[in-house]
Task: structure prediction
Amino acid sequence: MRRRSISTATALAVLFSSAALVAGTAGPAAADSAKVLSVKSVGDLVVDGTHQRVYVSDPADGKIVVTDYTGTVKATLTGLPGVTGLALSADSGQVYAAVKDTGRIVSVETGTYTQTASYDLTGADAPAGLEIVDGRLWFGYGSRIGSLDVSGAEPLVRLDQNAGADFSGAAPLLGADPAAPGVLVAGAGGRLAVYDVSAEGAALRVQGSMDTGVKQLDLTPDGTQVLTSWDGSGYGYGFPAYSTTSLEEVASYPTEAYPNAIAVAPDGTVAGGSFSWYAPDVHIHRAGDPKPARQYEFPNTGNSSGGDTLVPGALAWAPDSSRVFAVSENSYGTFTLRALTDPAKELPALTVSAPTSAERAQKLTVTGKLTSKTALPAGTALKVTRTDVESPSGKALPAAGTKADGTFSFTDTPPAGGRVTYKVAYAGDATHAPASGSDAVQVSRKAPTLTLNRNGNVYTYGTDVSFTAHLGTTYKNRVVEIYANPYGSDRPNRLLKKAQVNSQGNLSATVDMTRDTVVTAVFAGDARYASKTAKSTAYAKAKVSVGVTRHYKTGKIGSTTYSYFRKSTDPLFTTTMNYYSGRKQRFELEVYHQGTWYASTSEYFALGTDGRSAVRLEAPGESGIRARMRSSYVNGSSGDNVNSTAHTAWKYFTFTN
Result:
């Protein structure tokens, strides 16, 4: 069991404007980190959650610095003059960078940090901002917007896609969110525009003028609001949120300093950054709450009287919302990232070429060539094997022989549909090593129907839930597999049932819902019907309860039951929760004052391995105080995301003489 204590006098400071915690036997916690970056400037930063890396572009030095989450440098990518905007592909496999001085966008493979492509944007002067929407790259250049589509055989660049919006000579800043398909926001100077980019081009939804220049912008995950950093021009400072349908202001997050960055987390939490020597630099807001839940003030690492300042636009969230990354600069111009066989034989080359597609039960021709440094004689024998759904281990076909130039061909009539692979193998000889090659043809099959119920349902912890897969018409195979993949890395995807469906085409399996779970039904296909997969994600609330001890009695005040404590007694609240490594409970305290409950403090405390966490509230030393508390598991904020959010009921207590 983990134990903590909270000072009651401090916790009740909602009445006196501040709150703080007194630590008991504290366990280790994730700490803020700061490491100096070897850069001359900062253009943009993007976070790769899959590999836990942070990419920082340095336009002045023409490079990208790659760090881990602690700021330790893992790679430096050079030769990118003016590199500014960065964007991460949906699968975290590529980082794209707008190289301003060469008018290009380059892609970098995230596993090896190697450049994989360079795309010419002829006609797009000095591309800067970069965003990905539905797999397509959008960039700002000059006073215009362009796009780059690399999904086809050749890259496709489209320029001048403003659709009537005027950005007053400045390269527009862009904003998007992977959870909001088809939505792109752009802003520069005093202009802001929202686009629908679900089709090939950009369709302007709405545009408008702001009271001041847009310095950075971001889109909420639901795509309904665009947030900007706004200096107010005499009307106050803050981070307003505008409707993406009307550009009417629908929310605001005020600050007392000069705003210069904005970033919205995948869970909707807002991080606003401001330029300030003597006040907080990063402000964290819950969605819609104008009062910051937390603020960070950078220390002074230079020689000025004030602290380090936030670089404009240098805020980015980790995809799991666990961290926000910021880059600060001190008076020396130093930047800091805050929170990465047979060697004697010739080796012949054997190529095989099959048609891309074919009709089942129709003849096709496969060709190829066997070459080597020392030519092989005509008639060299080649072994041919066909692999398909009816012959998964392969079926030998008549051997093929080479011609004098090494070429060969053979015909076959595939009896089964789906992916059919033809493998051709040369056995080798005294001076040549074995060689083989293969190619596959997609032979036509019908598409089956496969469905799975319960998608999106939320259940109480421990509920036994029956998931039913339904399979439509097929040829021979009537077997369906049902898998359960609970959230969390400690439990692998598990086969629940593999069996033939019943006469109605149904197969059911039961899941004990102790975690959020992805259930998958799989039909492997047969000779005439293609394979099919259906998925259903269901959610399990955490199991959380809280007990109150050290009170001398219980009684009612009005219709509410209270625990009564002596004013010199420390209440003890013990939370019990289903355990997961690194899990924390959220302890929430409110105080009753003049007819209203006021939020006093909210803090996360780690669970022991027994799933319990005890918090001691220090006695206030005075009577008449009424308060209440509850414990919660909050998905994504309690240290993990394997369960759905759950709260205990409020526990009410009071102090007497």
Notes: The longest strand covers residues 391-401. Helices lie at 8-11.
